[in-house]
Design brief:
16 helices; disordered N terminus; alpha+beta; Glutaredoxin; single chain; 19% strand
Length: 530
């Protein structure tokens, strides 16, 4: 689906949800079913909360004067969250669940909506979430979403008030307690910041040029950030809020047409007739704002420093704007995080040119925690790979100390006196897979003195590699990233599929990137016999 249409749908749904929320709130107030809790905050040695409606063991809860969002330092652990519900008992089958976007750093497993725990009859539930760094996680309870800032190895408690379909956090205990309470309030209020949104819309409507629209967006961003900076929230809360503002600002810059079209429709200034063309309208509106390098706006700012702690980064984990600037420079930390996630998930982002090859080699990493996560993953692959090695047709040279040159020599030595055809491929490489049937047919036609070899590396997911190679008659080698790409680069290529042909004396006679066709390969084999 077109990116701009997706953005349009996203923004339209957000407006619909906001409208429904406002209507529900109005109706609930009319029926006087909302119980308003007034909180009094006293800043002395800490940030104290008093509330007579709280359970006895929660009335004396105090909060720190300030809490600071840490740099993204990795350390594995399980974050434990204890939920306690008051004012209403949960219905049978209700649960607390992590959103479908949640994925811990350094693991291949997503925690979808099925990752949940039931709410017990006594109104309590405990959620355990594996983490590798302090980060924000969005959890769903009933029809409400609550952001939590969690720390590996730490335990927190959250007191929730349930009123019909709605649920809100009223108190926290443990690490980042004050920040969590502030974020829970702000998360719901941020959807109702009608003043800033309306001001922006009117400015855009009155703007006649691209520069005027750009100034309107900058004014909108600065107004919201200024409001955040003036608040008495913790430094951690402010950092997370600023990142959210910057993220929305970036959405405007990168998808202006979709956002502006949504606002026009929402305000009734654009009618949707039966033959209304969404894509054409979005493209037309997109031309109203011309921005060359939007990401440079905050690329090296606080966002780059703290981004891994924010849930929003993980929503867009593979989006290049979160680690690569238009001028080609990289935010090292975010790029390494994305590269590790790609490697662990079996994705070959390097094949699309989004991440340089060096980010798949732990020896080149700046952040030791990222390097350790990638090495751990490669070691796990090595153990799995050894179980697939039969010493006859399948060989795994994973995580060895051999250099790319030594690996190539070792492979050629295994097939002395034979013509060797090497196919460097990947399980997610479409051109590689399309060429496989023709190569397989060619291999069956060739005499015994021609050996077909395919080589993959740790960028190819082990399970997929094992599945595909069972249907291939060639010999299979599973190499480290360094060995695989080292051999390819030695022959002046930087992409796959790459093909090499060596004669019976082990001398390279042919090399190409991209499959040239069976007839070309046959001709090259004939040359080796002359």
């Amino acid at each position: 689906m077109n990116y701009f249409i997706i953005k349009f749908i996203e923004f339209t749904l957000r407006n619909i949800i906001n409208s429904i929320t406002i209507i529900l709130s109005f109706l609930m107030n009319m029926n006087k079913t909302i119980i308003t809790i007034m909180l009094a905050f006293v800043v002395t040695a800490g940030w104290a909360q008093e509330n007579t409606d709280l359970p006895e063991d929660w009335k004396s809860v105090t909060y720190e004067a300030d809490e600071v969002l840490p740099d993204a330092i990795f350390h594995k652990g399980v974050a434990k969250v204890n939920f306690q519900f008051i004012n209403d008992k949960p219905m049978p089958g209700e649960s607390v669940e992590v959103t479908d976007f949640f994925k811990p750093f350094g693991v291949s497993i997503y925690y979808p909506c099925g990752f949940s725990v039931p709410i017990n009859d006594d109104g309590k539930a405990t959620l355990e979430i594996p983490l590798s760094l302090v980060r924000s996680v969005l959890v769903n309870i009933k029809s409400s979403a609550i952001p939590l800032l969690l720390c590996p190895g730490e335990e927190i408690s959250c007191l929730l008030e349930m009123n019909g379909p709605q649920c809100k956090a009223v108190a926290f205990k443990g690490k980042y307690a004050r920040t969590n309470l502030e974020m829970a309030r702000w998360f719901n209020q941020s959807f109702d910041d009608n003043e800033a949104e309306e001001t922006l819309y009117q400015l855009l409507l009155a703007s006649k040029t691209s520069d005027e629209r750009r100034k309107a967006l900058v004014s909108y961003r600065d107004m919201k950030i200024s409001k955040i900076n003036k608040s008495d929230c913790t430094s951690a809360t402010k950092a997370l809020q600023r990142m959210d503002v910057e993220d929305r600002y970036l959405e405007w810059l990168c998808a202006f047409g979709a956002r502006y079209t949504s606002e026009l429709i929402g305000h009734g200034d654009l009618e949707m007739s039966d033959n209304f063309d969404f894509e054409k309208t979005i493209k037309t509106n997109d031309s109203l704002l011309v921005v060359e390098n939007p990401i440079n706006e905050y690329f090296e700012g606080a966002y780059a420093k703290y981004a891994p702690c924010a849930d929003l980064m993980w929503h867009h984990l593979l989006a290049p704007e979160y680690y690569k600037a238009p001028d080609g420079t990289y935010n090292r930390l975010n790029a390494e995080i994305v590269a590790v996630q790609c490697a662990v998930s079996g994705m070959t982002e390097v094949e699309t040119g989004q991440i340089p090859n060096e980010y798949f080699s732990p020896d080149t990493y700046t952040y030791k925690e990222c390097a350790e996560a990638l090495r751990n993953h490669q070691q796990e692959l090595a153990q799995k790979a050894q179980g697939k090695t039969d010493g006859k047709t399948t060989f795994c040279l994973i995580y060895g100390d051999e250099s790319p040159e030594d690996v190539l020599t070792d492979i050629l030595d295994r097939y002395k006196g034979k013509i060797v055809f090497m196919d460097f491929w990947g399980t997610s490489c479409i051109p590689c897979l399309k060429a496989q049937p023709e190569i397989e047919k060619l291999a069956k036609e060739m005499p015994d003195d021609v050996q077909f070899i395919d080589l993959a590396c740790t960028q190819s997911k082990m399970e997929k590699w094992g599945e595909l190679t069972t249907h291939m008659s060639s010999h299979h080698f599973y190499l480290t990233h360094e060995q695989f790409w080292g051999i390819i680069k030695k022959h002046h290529f930087d992409m796959i599929p790459t093909y090499l042909i060596f004669n019976k004396q082990g001398k390279l006679t042919y090399s190409t990137m991209g499959f040239p066709g069976a007839d070309v390969i046959k001709e090259e084999f004939l040359k080796c016999t002359e």
